[in-house]
């Protein structure tokens, strides 16, 4: 029993869908659960729909049209005009229109999940129908009937007991199963999601509940590299990474593996393979028990567009437990993700991600009680297993504002040139 995960980049056009089906045919089409994300950048396109709908702008029908045209154009290269799939896609788009017309809820996160899920529903319907068309029997299922969560929309927490029970009881794991990543449902059958880029986590959940042999995440890169190839020119493929090391890398922001994915796999000792859908014969990266890192070289992680905030008390008193815990509570309340902390006697600095755009509210609340210096638009570079050469290469990229070192890791906040 194995789990495959194909992300948006692997199903971004008709040729990519054909490539996915070829990989499935050569890797075996039995005892597999295939988890698929929305096609290309369609989740972002759905976010535009949500924005237009929620803020009642005049862009709603245009944004919906972009999504419909994208899928129909792609389908025209895969199917014949009278194939059943066109009706199925129209039914899904009809369900979406029905929701948009009938919904009365003002809860943004709830509305977001009820709309965003259509990206994964559309992509899996299309891949499943194409497999059927070329003669590969498969079982499409709605993941919302299997993965159950709480009602924390947009970042839902999995109900592991119920999910385990449903997957064990209802899923025929001997088949080639096709399902959606990222989406789930709560106990009232409303759609929830596991957080952006959460399809890897879906693969981890199925692997855990089915005691899978392994999970393969198919990517447009040869595997996990020692740096993001979009930012660094010379990168090296990491052949083996221990779970602990991969969790550290994901924690510091290595976006190639979703951080939550590794925990369920580690608990059951299920290897995670990261392989290239461009060169599927290559072995890629293996994350498993064993060597920490092979080859053992510095690994670079970048988080762009961070905010560096230095906070001190107005009366120059020490920054200690009581005010630090207060600041942390506020960071939590405003959903600001802290990526680095440093404190001295009178100042407390944090490097944060303003993912939910709530920094200004946080700032306005704190500025009455603290002196706050803010530097927006900085980059946070983390180097695991650093050496002098690696540090120098980062420092050459701009002006370092803050550096923090521990045994295996150095973090440098920079204003880049
Ligand atoms: N350390 C890394 N190793 C490999 N790829 C990385 C790394 N860091 C960032 N990436 C980027 O991650 C991309 C693949 O992830 P992503 O776009 O999220 O894939 P998908 O959405 O298809 O799952 C690669 O194209 C690469 O640019
Ligand atoms: N489609 C969702 C879930 C996901 O994981 O996508 P991808 O596998 O393309 O990163 C998103 O974009 O957030």
UniProtKB/TrEMBL annotation:
Pathway terms, separated by semicolons: Amino-acid biosynthesis; L-methionine biosynthesis via de novo pathway; L-homoserine from L-aspartate: step 1/3; Amino-acid biosynthesis; L-lysine biosynthesis via DAP pathway; (S)-tetrahydrodipicolinate from L-aspartate: step 1/4; Amino-acid biosynthesis; L-threonine biosynthesis; L-threonine from L-aspartate: step 1/5
One BP annotation, GO: lysine biosynthetic process via diaminopimelate
GO CC annotation: cytosol
Residue ranges of every copy of the Aspartate/glutamate/uridylate kinase domain listed in the record: 3-276
Alphabetized NCBIfam families for the sequence: asp_kinases (TIGR00657)
Family classification: Belongs to the aspartokinase family.
PANTHER family assigned to the protein according to its UniProt record, in alphabetical order: ASPARTATE KINASE, ASPARTOKINASE
Protein name: Aspartokinase
Organism, scientific name: Polaribacter sejongensis
